[in-house]
């Protein structure tokens, strides 16, 4: 307990309740789960977005054309990556967040299909980007 506990017990405790109310534990667990979920969503979004950039630029270079100029990459990284990632970071908790079982602390951030989703989304966005480029080139000429 943060108010009534002694300094010795506070130093060895894993958790200190600042308001001496056990209901605070439930709120803290819910907030921790929300933050963890939002971090995973932001990481998934940023990695899949950047992977699609890398794949698109790689294949465009291999095929002998430039798909994104440096100013385009800068715009994508500064504006279209950061603002949605920030929005994902402050998203509200899902309705069933407290009904889930506790996650394994040894579980990685890419577990539960996040790694596959990053790869899949990155490849799909790259395919769509290259397709849009080729369609635009055909209509231009």
From TrEMBL:
MF (Gene Ontology): P-type sodium:potassium-exchanging transporter activity
Domain Cation-transporting P-type ATPase C-terminal: 66-138
GO biological process entries: intracellular potassium ion homeostasis; intracellular sodium ion homeostasis; potassium ion import across plasma membrane; proton transmembrane transport; sodium ion export across plasma membrane
Chief localization: membrane
Alphabetical list of InterPro entries matching this protein: ATPase_P-typ_cation-transptr_C, ATPase_P-typ_TM_dom_sf, Cation_transp_ATPase_P-type, HAD_sf
Topology of the protein relative to the lipid bilayer: Multi-pass membrane protein
Keywords: Cell membrane, Membrane, Transmembrane, Transmembrane helix
Subcellular location per the Swiss-Prot or TrEMBL entry: Cell membrane
Annotated transmembrane regions: 43-65, 71-90, 110-135
One Pfam match: Cation_ATPase_C
Assigned GO CC terms: plasma membrane
Name the UniProt record assigns to this protein: Putative membrane protein
């Amino acid at each position: 307990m943060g108010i009534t506990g002694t300094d010795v017990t506070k130093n060895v405790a894993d958790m200190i309740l600042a308001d001496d109310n056990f209901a605070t534990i439930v709120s803290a667990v819910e907030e921790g789960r929300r933050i963890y979920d939002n971090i995973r969503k932001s990481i998934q979004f940023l990695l899949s977005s950047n992977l699609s950039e890398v794949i698109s630029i790689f294949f465009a270079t291999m095929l002998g054309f430039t798909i994104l100029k440096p100013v385009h990459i800068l715009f994508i990284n500064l504006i279209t990556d950061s603002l949605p990632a920030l929005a994902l970071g402050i998203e509200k908790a899902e309705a069933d967040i407290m009904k889930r079982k506790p996650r394994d602390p040894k579980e990685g951030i890419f577990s539960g299909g996040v790694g596959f989703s990053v790869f899949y989304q990155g490849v799909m966005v790259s395919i769509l980007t290259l397709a849009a480029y080729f369609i635009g080139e055909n209509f231009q000429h």
